[in-house]
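Lab meeting minutes (informal)
Scribe: AK
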Amino acid sequence: MSFFINNRNNQKPACINSQQLKNIAEKALIQVPRVFDACVHRIDSDVFNITLTDFTPANPAFPLNYISTINNPDVPVTISNLSIDRGDGNGNFATVTATVNIPLLVSYTDANGVPGTATSSISITRSATLCVPQNSLTPIDITATAVFQSIIGSFPTDSTASITACVQIVFRAVGVVDLLVPTFGYPVLPLCQPQGDATCNAVFNTPIYPTRP
């Protein structure tokens, strides 16, 4: 059993309707990253020339046969050269410019048909107008996430690739805040499997969540 398997209790995550709003139990204070503004940059079928490193397995037989390129799942996207220009009289709005550094994982088969990967990266500079709140005790960070995907490419040399890719970059203005939100109280956590005998009742009867004030 889980929240969504054979579970009929009302204290579980689910869509709500207007009738259920009267069951709101409390106003809870939670600490969360709040996104004050965000936008998406899209790059449609652009050509990128990248340098390959860290061939796995090592010493592949050249020439290579291109398969695909995606974000490297083991390395996070980072930003650099960030500038926030509020201009004159723009209040909370600012022109945000940053270089987004996207780590890449290139897949191929070598001349002997052995599959392998190599790593690379690209850096893309973009600007966006975002709502960036004025200075406060809560710092505002500009973050970026990106999706990079390519299934068209070739290897001009043994250590470079020329690829056609689609890219989406999301800029966000984020601050970690204490936010007051309405809640339905704590969920009722179902047992993953039936409970055994009563030997461990002293432990099992301990509340999962602290008592609300």
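Next up, CB showed the second protein from the same session:
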Amino acid sequence: MSVPPGFVVAITGASGAVFAARLLEVLTTRGETVHLTISPSGAQVLREETGVSVDLSRFDAGAFPGVNPAKVQYHHHQDFMCGIASGSFRTRGMVICPCSMSTLGAIAHGITTNLIARAADVHLKERRKLIVVPRETPLSLIHLENMTAVTRAGAVVMPAMPGWYHKPQALGDLIDFIVARICDGLGIENALAPRWGEESKS
């Protein structure tokens, strides 16, 4: 029996690494296979914002609290020989979380100098789900035009902008709001955050 295709998750050097760490936890504890790739800047932000220290050359998924290491397949950001660099390798979608403005710009202009941009390019050309989660403010015209470009190409731009209507009580509620929307975009059922019209947490 063939292994069901998994999701690609890329972590780049924008602020908001907590969203990526929580997304990995949610996906892997639900039994989803994750093809993970991390840029050097992404690793630096992970360390600064979450305390998670990863060695990009000898990666250990166990460094992420709550993540099921058996469900993570790691790919070095310069490994163009791995499966996710090719359109013939099946996946159910890709998330870049958080997505730096430099990564967004590379995708918008088809510049594939690392595996993250190449995998994103593959998802666009194969008409697969690509979700980019930018976390930047304020936004320049260049940023906005790049977001428009990737949207026209078929990506979903999902800024890390949590809502407040569910009356969050803790930081984790705000993180789960964004992760819930990402999971929705990937077609993964979840109850991470109350939905509009539903009774909010007390």
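CB comment: The mean pLDDT is 94.
No objections, moving on.
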